[in-house]
Amino acid sequence: MKNLPKICLGAWAWGNDGTFGNHLTKEMLKPVFEKGIELGLNLWDTAFVYGMGESEKILGNFLKNIKREDYIISAKFTPQCAGMFGADPIRGMFETSNKLLNTNGIMDFYWIHNPVGAPRWIKEIIPLAKEGKIKNIGVSNHSLAEIKEANEILKKEGLKIDAVQNHYSIINRSSETSGILDYCKKNNIIFFSYMVVEQGALTGVYNENNPFPTDSDRGMKYNPLLPKLKIMNEALEKVGKNHNATISEVAIAYVINKGTLPIVGVTKIKHVEEAYISSKIILSSDEIKYLEDVAAKLNLNTIREWEKEMK
Known about the structure:
Elements: E1 8-10, H1 26-38, E2 43-45, H2 54-63, E3 72-77, H3 89-101, E4 107-112, H4 120-124, H5 126-130, E5 134-140, H6 144-155, E6 163-167, H7 174-177, H8 180-186, E7 190-194, H9 217-222, H10 226-241, H11 247-257, E8 261-265, H12 269-278, H13 285-298
Parallel strand pairs: 1-2, 1-8, 2-3, 3-4, 4-5, 5-6, 6-7, 7-8
């Protein structure tokens, strides 16, 4: 797809679903959205499952005042929610998302959110694609074998996988070591990397004296890892000094320099500004190797309950 920005802004936290341990309102998020548009970061990622429509509703409230050609939307079909949408779950969720987002009935990117029930759902997305309602078909949280299977099914219908979206960061490179990144490059598939700053763990904000909210999903996962994360953040900070960049800016720049398009969750204006700055940072091969060596020694496992390690 032409004219994609180097960064996708993520609205997962906007769903207030308990993952992040906070409550965000449209009044709080409107300046965040406006800053993204101002900086040319007009690619937004969301899903119905993020708060069961809450994220899409808030984002859609802002999008209704923007020309359709001036923004790019990435939304998802989540198999675990299929039972809410009748006999044709994909069409039902697709149309619900379009209504909440105030789009014109066309999704720029539409994803099978995870491989639960695969390959059923990739088959059932075909009619929407052939109707021209989906510009780019994506699969998320899929292994290399599952991606190849989906692509073969689509090829028989004159379609293809256009995008893959997986968890990928300096401390979770399983989509690289499994061969997924190489497969995407060889087959002209855009790789969207999500959780590139590990839900705030790679920002330097959180430490043993200032842990994540203990009642949040991310707190339960990352708080036990804070001693090791301190070492990783110190390495990111060291590289950042070479570029006058923050820890999170280097973490984002790393995945861009590895040829991926990161989804950066944004809940504050500074998150948008850091994402924008990170897109300008070029890391040297020595800096990349240094960060990867530090991460390898720490051997951090940040695979979450809805994911699997890609092999």
